[in-house]
Amino acid sequence: MSVKFCLALLALSSLTAAADPDCEELIKPLEDRSKLPGKWIYTAGTSDNKELLEELKMVNSSWIELSPIPDSTDMTLRWGDKLNEKCVHGSTNSTSTENSTSVTFHFNSTTHVHVGKHLQTCPDCILWTDNFVSEDKNTATTRKGRNLYLFTKTGALDASHLEEFKKQAACLNFQAEFHFGEATDLCPDAADAKEEEQ
């Protein structure tokens, strides 16, 4: 009887942890989307897909710029990623509904579809979590997983905000394995780079 009682207590405690009131506060969706437009520097991220996490670790630095599309809830996403000391630029549109945002990226033969949402986080930060599906037409392979990315205005993050991010990751059931981007040595804006070449 005592063993069954202990097992029941363990089950109850795990349910209590999953419904932790602190987690309810930490993973609230962002309601004020007016904070999103602007340029943001990738600061920290993780994925529950090991292959994608290894690819993320190859990113030296990254920035994104979100711009609202007039008369729409959708946004244009531009980015500059430094991968193995080479700059990769791109642009795509995100489509938003009341509960989620969808972004599709095309790289060579692979299509990456990310459906997620922004969460409340530290000031001058944006936090994005998503479910993704990647399909490679050449190899007929599919990858799936979940991601969590934190961006900041300056690339710097206070220790207290880093701890909050780690707690948010734990609440979302991510392992404590993070990749941190560099705030310096960012790729130039593609438009600025073209102007310099002329």
Descriptive terms for the model:
disordered C terminus; alpha+beta; Calycin; disordered N terminus; Lipocalin; globular; 198 residues; 9 strands; 8-stranded antiparallel barrel
Gyration radius, to the nearest Å? 19 Å
Average pLDDT score: 87
Strand content bin:
35-45%
For the largest beta-sheet, the strand count, sense and barrel status come to: 8 strands, antiparallel, barrel
How many separate domains make up the residues? Answer: 1
Largest sheet strand order: 1-2-3-4-5-6-7-8
Unreliable runs, pLDDT <50, ≥5 residues? 1-18, 194-198
Chain-wise SSE layout:
Layout: H1 2-18, H2 21-26, E1 38-47, H3 50-56, E2 59-68, E3 75-83, E4 86-96, E5 101-107, E6 110-119, E7 125-136, E8 141-152, H4 159-171, E9 179-180, H5 190-197
Question: Could you explain how this protein is built, in words?
Answer:
The structure is a single chain. The protein is α+β, with helices and mostly antiparallel strands and 198 residues long. The chain has a single domain (38-181), classed as Calycin beta-barrel core domain (Lipocalin). 26% of the residues lie in helices and 42% in strands. The chain is built from five helices and nine strands; from the N terminus they run ααβαβββββββαβα. It has helices at residues 2-18, 21-26, 50-56, 159-171, 190-197, and strands at 38-47, 59-68, 75-83, 86-96, 101-107, 110-119, 125-136, 141-152, 179-180. It has an eight-stranded antiparallel β-barrel. A hairpin with a 6-residue loop joins β2 and β3. The chain starts with a helix and ends with a helix.
